[in-house]
Each structure stands twice: as structure tokens, then as C-alpha cells.
Amino acid sequence: MCPLIPNLNSHTRLLVVQHPSERNHALNTARLLALGLQQAELLVAESLAEHPQWLAALQDPHWRTELLFPGPDVPLVSAQPEDSRPRRLVLLDGTWRKARKLMHVNPALQALPRVSLPASLRSRYRLRKVPHPGALSTIEAGVEALRILEPGLPVDQLLAPFDALIDAQINAMGADLYARNYRTH
Description:
Blueprint: E1 13-18, H1 29-36, E2 40-44, H2 52-58, E3 64-68, E4 87-93, H3 96-104, H4 107-110, E5 114-115, H5 138-149, H6 159-173, H7 175-181
Parallel strand pairs: 1-2, 1-4, 3-4, 3-5
Helix pairs in contact: 1-5
């Protein structure tokens, strides 16, 4: 799979805060995102208080830092060229429950302006049952945000190892088991 991981260079920086329980997950899409994008960093932590350098970075007024996380009345991510500061998007990696916990225990994340993705997006993650429309894996969310912010960036390259990983998992489980548990009719 390593040859499939691109080496993309974006203007937008991504910080993925990963819940510690996700670190060794077999389908760790946050790690794939961080490996394929030069301007992405993966921080495995439940509490940002243990990482004062990141707390300071999130509050740096020279950066336009936003949390990519859905919610009622959260505006869609957009380019907004009138704000010329460099942009940093923070993504939370974990189950929805763990992602909400990351927000709850980190006032610095709660204080960030939030942006979201269109709810009409569909996940390619065929091995998970989606809890609600628009629910995406971390790599898919990062790709879709970059697709909006940097239309010329070949972000689909980031999904090649993700797709290969899913295909390998489906092949390993067998077509019958996959059809019984994941296919929708």
C-alpha cells in the first residue's frame, strides 16, 4: 500500500487530533491522511492541555484556524479570499462519541470557529454503517474540505490507499460475509 500514498503539498494545513483509542485501529484513515499530505500533522491526544505548543498554535491570530465539525447552524467550509491569513483546519478522529468527547474535554477546540461539509456527501467507507447522512471518515472529510478550498489540488490521490485498504478488508472477509453485513439492498 505504501506506493499508493501520495506526497501532496497544500496551502491549507491540517491538524488531526486523534483519540488515543484509534491509534492502532486497522483502518486508521487519519494516519493515511497525515502520510499523504505534507501539511498535515497527526496529534494523538485526548487532552490538548498536555500539548502547550498546540494550544498556542490554535490561538495564534496570524492563522485562520477552524474546527471542521458538523452541527446546527455551522457554516460550510469556503475559500473566503478576503481573509488572507494562512489556513489551518482541525479535524477530530475517532467515533462520533469519541470526537464529541475530544471537544468536550478541550476548551481550546470549543473556542474555535466551526465549519462543516455539505450533508449530501456520501462515504466510500463500505465497511462501516454510517450513523447519519454526510458522515465521513477522517480522510474523506479532509479530502472534501481540501477539494473546496484548493480546487486544483489532486486530492483524489489521497483516497487511493484508503480504497485499497477497504478492498483488501472486503476480500479478506469474503464476498458472502460482506454482502450479509454491509451491502444495502
